[in-house]
Structures are given as C-alpha cells and as structure tokens.
Amino acid sequence: MINMESMGIPLMPSVARRIIEELFKRQRLWKRGDLINEVERIHAERGGIAGNQDRSAVVSKALGYLQEDGKVLKAGYGLWQGKSDDGADVTADIEPPIVLSASTQEGDMWVAEKEIGVGPESVYVYFNPNDRTLASHERRAVWECKIGRTSASEVRSRIQAQGTATAISHEPVVGLIIRTHDCVALEKVLHSSLRLIDARVPDSVGVEWFMTSPQHIEKWFAAFQDVLSQLSAD
After folding, report:
1. pLDDT per position as a tens digit, 77-98
2. Are 117 and 147 in the same domain?
3. Which one, of 219, 137, 143, 209, lies nearest residue 178 by Cα?
4. Residues ≥6 apart with Cβ < 8 Å to 132
C-alpha cells in the first residue's frame, strides 16, 4: 500500500532516516549499498520522488544522524548495525561483521568515491591510484581509467573477477559508479563517445581503458541525460 504522506516528497535525509529505522527493525545488520537500494525502492513505492541530492549522500547523512543519536553503529567496513531500545549492541541472530585486512580497509576499492544515477545495473570507472597521483603532479586532468559494466548490484564482485589483485600494483580506486537500467547500452554509448575524441589508451590490454577521469565521465553523463530529455520531449 502506498503511503500517501510520501507522495511527491523528494528523498532527503529526514525521509531516509525514517525508512532506515524501519529497515533496522527488520534486520540488524546491513551493508551500506543494500541500505541505499532499499531506501530508494521503499521511498519510490510510497510515492516519493528522487529529489536533487545524490541518494548515497542522502543515506550517508541519515546514517550519520542515527549514529549521533546512538541508534546505529559501524560494525565493519561498509557495514552498519542497529542497537536495541536500551542502547545495547544487537548481536544475536545475525552474522558477525566481516573482518577485512588493513590494506583493504585503507583502499577505496570497496566503496566508490561517488555514485550517481538510478537503477539495478552499473557502469563503473576505476583506476590505479598511482596514475591519478602522477596526473596531479604533472597537472593533467585525465589519466588511465577503466570503464566497465555489470548487471549485478555489486560492482566489487565484477572488479574482483577481473583479477585486479594481481593485475595492478595497488588496490584500484572506484572513482564513479553510474546506476542504470541498461548498463550495456550506457557503456556502449560512453565508450563510443570516448573513441570519438580519441581517448583510448594506446596499446592497452583490453578495449575499456581510456584517458579520462571520474569527473569528466560525470559531466558527460549529465549532458547525455539532457540530450535524452530533449529527444523524449513532446
């Protein structure tokens, strides 16, 4: 049943907070990514609209407020745990927190620096952190980035499957995730756009490496959305 109180209301931290509190009553341990997806889904089911704020930022703010109020706590990297009404940690009937190595916790592979768009599939941008550091020293705005796609909700699994642990010297940084309902089409048009400006990395292994940056791709996506809006306008 649609909650009429949410009709037409944009997703914002106060709204996300109420939904998150409901979710922690159902389940005491949540991955941040799953919370983001559930908050967006429930808000939409209740007649809410996306709003202008990025959904991951909205959920992060809501979690921060709940943490300040002693309602939730961080149970591990990317994991959040609810507390009982008396403030005690709830540990019964839940899986223990995932323990990650120090190198993994310090890296950015598991949590994207930025996430935009809406949908169950993803187009992602990742890179070797050394390449970004070198570009900064050389005052370049672009560096070698891999742009891939996955129809699964977890980008991490897709990147791991590519053997990044042995293919590059450091944990890759996921600079951007674009959520979409058609990752194949979105990746294809993005790759084509980059090829038109001759941004492919010469002699790279594979066809998904380009001289670009997450910021450039984010700007491209915003412009591409405007073009689609113009095409679909009456």
Report:
1. 678 888 765 444 443 333 333 3
2. yes
3. 219
4. 143, 173, 213
